[in-house]
Specification:
The protein is of the alpha/beta class. It folds into 2 domains: 163 residues, Quinone Oxidoreductase, Chain A, domain 1; 154 residues, Rossmann fold (3-Layer(aba) Sandwich). Helices cover 27% and strands 25% of the residues. The protein is built from 10 helices and 17 strands. Strands 3, 4, 5, 8, 9, 16 and 17 form a 7-stranded mixed β-sheet that branches. The protein has a 6-stranded parallel β-sheet with strand order 12-11-10-13-14-15, sandwiched between helices. It is globular and about 60 Å long. Bound molecules: NADP nicotinamide-adenine-dinucleotide phosphate. NADP nicotinamide-adenine-dinucleotide phosphate binds next to helix 3, helix 4 and strand 11. Pfam families: ADH_N, ADH_zinc_N.
Length: 357
């Protein structure tokens, strides 16, 4: 395998600007880097918001995308953990301090070997590409024990003593059908949480139960109705609530469901008054941050990546269902529009960048 000098990539040209697929150089690997031929890239919930709202990214043009899977084609100096030909998953490079991104919406990704991991042969590139951000968001926000980590700080099920540790404790996951909600349900199962109560559209019930949800409540029920059902099902106060949606439709409910001194995990901006209201009752609100390369996540990321191939191989963690969008990188913009319009249900949208015209 050889690395070409140029490739196609999907650029967001300017803040709230236009998307364009165009030719750009393939970056040379620095020390510790690998170059991956990207066979599948998955769409996330944040990319359309960056374009529509002008948030998070400060430097343009930029290449977005946090989920990728492909084949290693070149090794930078000093890389010994991978060989050319290895099948891997990886996250796009997103630096939240500088507001820069070099993402997965391209054909050849160059980035640190530290944040990539080999995948079992039994898992397709498309399925694998649904894993990096979703797994990290759920795992880091529930289990990162670093002092200042935005996390509920439970003991991870892949660490000694963690498996089944929370048997008999209830958990609520609002929005189980989201990509990282599906992974949160599976980690909750590995941790022993029970019951695992989630919300979504009822046509996703079987899917969510296949991951380990014990009860699926219709997201269309009123907050009062959901609270009453959760109280009845859980039997005891719920100390951990994971709000995988975190919009006005779910945040008040998430806080109301959480026991005093319990933990609420949110995944996007939460109004100060809601946080203050929760804090009055001693509830801790943690803003999930599912990026491997952010330093606070390095240690938990290292232990997770060491175990992830095995978790995937034996089916302890199952990838999201996926749907391939036609047209390679040209298919991304239409997919993001569907996500913005709430027209994606229980499935991760994936493109094959090598199919780009
Ligand atoms: N902070 C972080 O590190 C981080 C990381 C990843 C994602 N996020 C954020 O997390 C959110 C979800 O992203 P995603 O890409 O994983 O998911 P997604 O694919 O955008 O989620 C779509 C799913 O959300 C469910 N949903 C929507 N509104 C709901 C509600 N009111 N109650 C229950 N379920 C609801 C729908 O379920 P049904 O189809 O069953 O109705 C749908 O299947 C986005 O806002 C994203 O930006 C944050």
């Amino acid at each position: 395998m050889s690395t070409p000098s140029h490739q196609k990539a999907l650029f967001l040209e300017a803040k709230q600007g236009r998307w364009a697929v165009r030719t750009t150089e393939v970056r040379k690997p620095g020390p510790g880097d690998i170059v991956v031929k990207v066979e599948a890239a998955a769409l996330g919930g944040v990319e359309w918001k960056i374009q529509a709202w002008g948030i998070l990214i400060k430097q343009y043009p930029t290449i977005l995308g946090l989920d990728g899977a492909g084949t290693v084609v070149e090794l930078g100096e000093g890389v010994t953990t991978f060989a050319v030909g290895d099948r891997v998953i990886f996250q796009g490079k997103w630096d939240t301090i500088t507001g820069t991104s070099y993402g997965t919406f391209l054909q050849y990704f160059t980035g640190s070997a530290q944040f990539a991991v080999k995948i079992p042969d039994s898992i397709s590139f498309e399925a694998a590409s649904t894993v990096p951000l979703g797994v990290a968001t759920a795992a880091f926000s529930i289990y990162n024990q670093a002092d200042s980590a935005p996390s509920a700080k439970y003991l991870a099920p892949w660490l000694p003593g963690g498996r089944g540790k929370y048997a008999g404790k209830p958990i609520v996951i609002l929005g189980g059908p989201t990509s990282h909600g599906q992974y949160a349900i599976q980690f909750a199962r590995l941790s022993g949480f029970s019951p695992i109560i989630t919300t979504g559209s009822l046509h996703n019930t079987d899917l969510l139960k296949s991951f380990g949800a014990t009860h699926v409540l219709d997201r269309k029920l009123s907050d009062e109705e959901i609270k009453s059902q959760v109280t009845q099902i859980a039997g005891v106060p719920v100390e951990l609530v994971y709000d995988a949606v975190s919009t006005a439709a779910t945040l008040p409910l998430a806080l109301a469901l959480t026991a005093p001194r319990g933990n609420v995990i949110v995944v996007q901006f939460t109004p100060e008054e809601l946080i203050a209201q929760g804090q009055k009752d001693g509830k801790a609100v943690h803003m999930a941050h599912g990026v491997f390369r952010t330093p606070i996540n390095h240690e938990i990321g290292r232990t997770l990546l060491a175990k992830l191939p095995e978790l995937l191989e034996i089916g302890d963690i199952k990838p999201n269902r996926w749907e391939v969008l036609p047209g390679g990188l040209n298919g991304i913009v239409g997919g993001l529009e569907r996500m913005e319009n709430d027209q994606v249900s229980g499935v991760k949208l994936v493109v094959r960048p090598q199919e780009t015209d």
